[in-house]
Amino acid sequence: MASSRTFTLLCGLLAATLVGATLNPPAVLLLGPEIIREKLTQELKDHDAIQILQELPLLSTLREEPAGGIPILGSLVNSVLNHIIWLKITSANIMELQVQPSADGQELIVNIPLDLVAGFNTPLVKSIVEIHMETEVQATIGVETSKKGLTLSSCSDNSRSLRISLLKKLSFMVNPLANGVMKLLVPALPKLVKSQLCPVIEAAFEDMQEDLLHLVEAPISVSSDHLQFDLLSSAIKGNNIQLNLRAKLLDSQGTETKRFSESAASLTIPTLDDAPFSLTVRQDVMNAAVEAFLPSEELAVMLDSVLPELALRLKSSIKVISEKAAAQLGRTQIVKILTQEAPALLLDKGSAKLAQMIVLEVFASNEVRRPFFTLGIEANSEVQFFTKGAQLMLNLNEISSDRIHLMNSDIALFDPEILKDIATDILAAALLPNQNGKLRAGIPLSIVRALGFTEASSFLTKDAIVFTSDSS
């Protein structure tokens, strides 16, 4: 009974600890203002936002609601409009978008400046009278609490930014008419922009978000397997969009072999500074990618034929243990190297190591079935991460034996430290080139190219690898 109560108490304490713990996603994609601006600008082009602006029904709007709906001024407005044959936008441009955080830091404010020229024709002059109009649409991006994504929470014309002026002054008869038209446009233009352009901006934003989602979900090849991300949640961080991602590993048949969700494992997410984006991938996800390249395997080496100098050194080392055993080593002596457990990627403030548990067996010839002895070696190698274009490359530098154990022996009991140096050199000469050959394919960083960059860079934190780019 006491044991049952103790178990219940421990479960309660564990649950309370997990509730209070900060869970971190397997990966985080940070998108800076540059990416947001470029993606939304392209979507506005794809949605023909310029054409929508050029087709704003200026004249019909003024006639439907003269003087902003104030009846007492209706006759004065009509006297102005009666002299207008046509009035329409002759030139429209969307200037560079500006992205900035809201005052509370919980939303992003996107300012979309518009530069418009309207022309009207009047019997008073033969030429077209042109009016220059500058205004700004303000859209607000917020987190959609009911879903994982973001939402465009508001969109409106910033009437305080509206500036209207004549491009060229005309005769004393036309100038008063032009001034009258401009006064009518002051209340009408913001309403028109909101009703006609804001739906286009909302559609462009939704498509931008959909494109980003497809970009995130594009599978990444890791050897014959694939690493795939999908959206876990979204957030606004300063003037950046943060996409928190879960991850899964799929085999060549598309079957899920490993899934990564939020975890109490630490994750350091560096700030963007001047970088346009960053992708931070948690250590355990990267470890699974490396494991996909280096599955458990057995490597047999006919030492005397392939590495004769090491064969002589091994024979000399075994002779110290047993002269009889050393004398039995023939020209077909074989060393078998088995990697039975998954390698462990260890990160530590800018450096990385790959720890492996290796079994090494020595056979007197290719005809015998029992080895002279079996050694268990706890080895590690320095992992070099570097990028080549938009490809992550990995390379193992050197290999060291941290611990060496005698697992069994058919020749005599001995201190395995006697063989530590020669065993390490055999691993360096046989295992390391084999593993580097498998890692040589690298990992394509499809997300880099999808964001419009051809070069990537990477660096390590204490618990993740970070990909970014600062050149297009």
UniProtKB/TrEMBL annotation:
InterPro entries: Bactericidal_perm-incr_a/b_dom, Bpifb1, Lipid-bd_serum_glycop_C, Lipid-bd_serum_glycop_N
GO molecular function, one term: lipid binding
Taxonomic lineage from the root: Eukaryota, Metazoa, Chordata, Craniata, Vertebrata
Annotated ranges, domain Lipid-binding serum glycoprotein N-terminal: 36-254
Signal peptide: 1-21
GO cellular component terms given for this protein: extracellular exosome
Domain of life, source organism: Eukaryota
Protein name: BPI fold containing family B member 1
Gene Ontology process terms (BP): innate immune response in mucosa; negative regulation of toll-like receptor 4 signaling pathway
Database matches in SMART domains: BPI1
Keywords linked to the UniProt accession: Signal
SUPFAM superfamilies xref list: Bactericidal permeability-increasing protein, BPI
